Amino acid sequence: MKNKIILSVILLFTVNLFPQTDTALTFNEVMFKPSASNSEFIELFNTSITETIDLNNFKFKYHTSSTDIIISTGNGTLLPPKSYAVIFEGDYDFTNGIYSGLIPASALVLKLNNKAFGSSGMSNSSNRQIILFNSAGDTLDVYTYSANNSTGISAFPTLNVTTPKATDIKKAGLAKSPVIAPTLSPPAKATVPLNPPNLLTAL
């Protein structure tokens, strides 16, 4: 009994001393004007070089709408170090949707617990703020995208631009096409040099 109590205290101490580093999460891409319905997405990048982050019940808030909960699509919610997660609308068609076959197997694919980001999807008529929260409700990242994008063009928070220039795309290894699928490319603002292969070929 005494040994069990000591083990419990050690485990509790370890959890508190080495908490999950979810502050390493950042927005990497925001698709708010897709070329097909039910195809909005956000892309997250885990900048940590050591910590796996469990995204279970993390939350996304669009503008003034209530928060949406991020849930599994059946493949878990653990995001490894230096890896990407793509979060789709809850009613996105994973079999026949416009990004079918374009998302690398290394990406963690998640979805919302409802059919849209916000109450009815993200606006392209005015600038909007988006916020990422962990399961405890702590703010992890905030980004305001600029509206009036052409159809199928994403915003790239890590480049601090909405429609990246060719030089920006080359620098970050981003894929640009009439429909920009989740690029899964290294963020330009990362403090640690990143040299993963370009995971998505331009359409």
Descriptive keywords:
10 strands, 8-stranded mixed β-sheet, 203 residues, two-stranded antiparallel sheet, 11% helix, 24% strand, alpha+beta
The share of residues in extended strands comes to 15-25%
Distance between the termini: 62 Å
User: What structural category do the secondary elements indicate?
Assistant: alpha+beta
Average of pLDDT = 73
Name the helicity range.
Answer: 10-25%
> How many individual helices?
2
Low-pLDDT runs of 5+ residues are: 5-18, 160-181, 184-203
Shape: globular
User: Topology as H/E string?
Assistant: HEEEEEEEEEEH
Strand order of the largest sheet: 1-2-7-8-5-4-9-10
Rg for CA atoms: 18 Å
| Strand elements, count | 10
| Major sheet summary line | 8 strands, mixed
Please give a structural write-up.
With 203 residues, this protein is of the alpha+beta class. It contains 2 helices and 10 strands. It has an 8-stranded mixed beta sheet, with no helix packed on it. Strands 3-6 form a two-stranded antiparallel sheet. It is globular, with a radius of gyration of 18 Å. The N and C termini lie far apart (62 Å). The C terminus is likely disordered.
Brief account:
The chain is α+β, with helices and mostly antiparallel strands. The chain is built from two helices and ten strands.
Show the helix and strand layout:
Elements: H1 2-17, E1 25-31, E2 41-46, E3 53-54, E4 59-62, E5 68-72, E6 78-79, E7 84-88, E8 108-112, E9 128-133, E10 139-145, H2 166-172
Parallel strand pairs: 7-8
Antiparallel strand pairs: 1-2, 2-7, 3-6, 4-5, 4-9, 5-8, 9-10
